Amino acid sequence: MTKYVGSIDQGTTSSRFILFDRRGDIVALDQKEHAQIYPRPGWVEHDALEIWRNTQAVIAGALTKAGLSKTDLVSVGITNQRETTVLWDRRTGAPVHNALVWMDTRTDALVAAFERDGGKDRLREKTGLPLTTYFSGLKLRWLLDSIPGAREKATRGDLLFGNIDTWLTWNLTGGPDGGLHITDVTNASRTQLMNLATLDWDADILALFDVPRACLPQIRSSSEVYGACKGALDGVALAGILGDQQAALFGQACLAPGQAKNTYGTGCFMLMNTGEKPFPSTCGLLTTLGYKLGERPAVYALEGSIAIAGALVQWLRDNLGLVKHASEIEALAQGVDDNGDVYFVPAFSGLYAPHWKESARGVIAGLTRYANKGHIARAALEATAFQTREVLDAMVADSGVAISELRVDGGMVVNELLMQFQADMLNAPVVRPKVIETTALGAAYAAGLAVGYWTSTDDIVANWRGDKTWRPAMDAARREHLFSSWNKAVSRSFDWVE
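Above: the chain sequence. Below: its structure as tokens.
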């Protein structure tokens, strides 16, 4: 009987369940969006219970579409939006607050307070991360400070903290009835509470942030049998957990030092495999966990994080009504010959790598009476490519490795205009794989390796197949003029918030 691996892909805007076969091909997929909640400017929340309901729905949906049942699965993995923070009651399973989403900026005052005594990089040596609103440790601190009685309950272990992987794992394995309270090293590395060297919670940082250890999950590897699921997947081994960008690195078979991928989703995230030692960044990148397979040594990565990529297209659709469907943005942008000297810096939540400017806000620069909605659409797409160029330049400067090609994935890679412009901006080939759902595939690989469905990472490398390659076709003078104008626009976004 043919068996499959299931992958829960819980993202910023939707939850999906995808079934993969041994070749890494998709057998079935189901998807459901969840609400984006904006209580005030800069604040972004999700309803964690809605995410859990949707996860159960898409599991059932994908199995039904494939005509399969839980007995056809050898294991299941989880990949998730990282840094999104949930705090819930151990006995009831009820969250004590909406989840604080990774792009939420409400911890800016906490960041500023900790920066005043030691600077933005005071924790970088231990964690690989600058002080910023991005990571979940200070989001947890905000919840503990803001919810009456939360700190006392968390100190007793009556409240449990986790990124979305931990929340889903706990519910999948029983919830209040013995659910596992665990996370993997990749998600733990995004809290700013884990020490990169020990792969454990750092006592000094816990004390600094005033976070009780009793509410934190146990840190495990990215690929091992954690336990059996209950409910719809009753008896199926839960065997893989990877943060979404690390999952994409794994799914793209970037398993050798120097190999890099870029994921174009809500945000945009480039990761480069740097091997078994953490590589400190001096150019504004993050040092993070790449993955850890069972008892084998951890593999580290350099990461460039961009907060707003596909979310900018969503914003043009939902907030401005520029298009009815996100897929229409390419045709609108193709209606003009170029950007009309219009540049869109989407610093809605400040700027992430390589600038790390919480006080930046979005700007559209270069507007004249000539500019129309086509130019704005094109500028929005080009913003993703310009930001990726900034990150790649930093990555090359940090690592000393010139990238021979960039492997790409995520929802935006179906946009041919964007992919060609990306190759032009990087002056390097951009390669889209045959299976673009590499985030879900990476989690499936981790879960399948743990139970022997795939025998080794050689199977992952063998499965990777290219679909299309875009090669640079822009002359150097034009490229550098556009990038120079982009940098001018970026500088205009700085220090908008006092």
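The CA atoms of residues 40 and 106 lie 9 Å apart.
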